[in-house]
Design a protein that fits this description.
Elements (H helix, E strand, L loop, with lengths): L7 E6 L5 H10 L4 E6 L11 H17 L4 E4 L2 H14 L4 E2 L2 H11 L4 E6 L1 H6 L1 H7 L4 E6 L3 H6 L6 H14 L9 E4 L8 H7 L5 E4 L1 H17 L3 H5 L4 E5 L3 H12 L6 E3 L5
Parallel strand pairs: 1-2, 1-3, 2-9, 3-4, 5-6, 5-7, 7-8, 9-10
Helix pairs in contact: 1-10, 2-3, 4-6, 4-10, 8-9
The chain binds D-glutamic acid (DGL).
Length: about 270
């Protein structure tokens, strides 16, 4: 792969959730530049058809590529589940999704090979996680939790309504032969933001995994050589972060900073014409 030593990594999600992946990337690969695209005007993807999600995702990732991204991270489970192959086919740069890394994390964690995955309606209906887990010898139960994304987007990350809803979903998920499932996969990039609530309502014996860290590791491995060749000067530079949002820039700045854990300054409004 011929990537410059200080690559620009494009990260794409339907909204704020992908910031959990960006956060992990910044921790693991701080000497890179990042372009983040949140398609906030067209969220949620999780209740849309595969054709629509693929069209939106291709538009967004093309935008990142046109703006200099040399590697694309599809930091959205729904877009990965429904459109990764189509994004790869149309992109001129390497593409990394979040489902394979998420399944790999679950595989490392699960002792009894029984795993529960929560995600959007579209991710669950695609059975992308079930396939990825079954390939690793794991029995999977997938559960759609459509109310969680709007709660996260609203910033209700520590709210008792969120807790009540999460409890109902997880009670339904850890049932019907999966009472002893030992791992819970957060199959939606929004869910790490309510990890505390999910930890509280999930059965005590359950380990919680998400794909943020493992995806960041895959990206680091892909960039390996070019990163290790970076000069001392290049290493010393702080990451440059540039954000694009299709809805309110102000909302992105305010809510995004809470999710990313640092100030978000350079936000640009993007109008992707249909
Ligand atoms: N980011 C999406 C995911 O990881 C959830 C939000 C949406 O439905 O657009 O599945």
């Amino acid at each position: 792969m011929t990537t410059p030593r200080r690559p620009a990594i494009g990260v794409f999600d339907s909204g704020f959730g992908g910031l959990t992946v960006l956060k992990a990337l910044l921790e693991l690969i701080p000497h890179s530049d990042y372009l983040y695209f949140g398609d906030t005007a067209r969220l949620p993807y999780g209740s849309k058809s595969a054709e629509t999600v693929a069209r939106y995702a291709i538009e967004a990732t093309r935008y990142l590529e046109q703006h200099g991204a040399q590697l694309l991270v599809v930091a959205c489970n729904t877009a990965t589940a429904l459109a990764l192959d189509k994004i790869e086919a149309r992109s001129g740069v390497p593409v990394v999704g979040v489902i394979e890394p998420g399944a790999e994390s679950a595989s490392k964690e699960s002792k009894n090979r029984k795993v529960v995955v929560i995600g959007t309606e579209a991710t669950v209906s695609s059975h992308a996680y079930r396939r990825a887990l079954e390939q690793r010898g794991i029995q999977a139960k997938e559960k759609a939790c459509p109310l969680l994304v709007p709660l996260v987007e609203e910033g209700w990350i520590d709210h008792n309504v969120t807790e009540q809803i999460a409890r109902i979903y997880l009670n339904e998920a850890f049932a019907d032969g999966f009472e002893n499932g030992d791992t819970l996969v957060l199959g939606c990039t929004h869910y790490p933001l309510i990890r505390r609530v999910l930890r509280k309502v999930a059965p005590d014996h359950v380990a919680i995994v998400d794909s943020a860290q493992s995806t960041a590791q895959v990206v680091k491995d892909m960039l390996g050589k070019s990163l290790s060749e970076a000069t001392e000067d290049e290493r010393r530079k702080m990451p440059r972060l540039k954000f694009f949002a299709t809805d309110s820039v102000e909302k992105f700045r305010t809510l995004g900073a809470r999710f990313l854990g640092r100030e978000i300054e350079d936000v640009h409004h993007v109008d992707l014409k249909e």
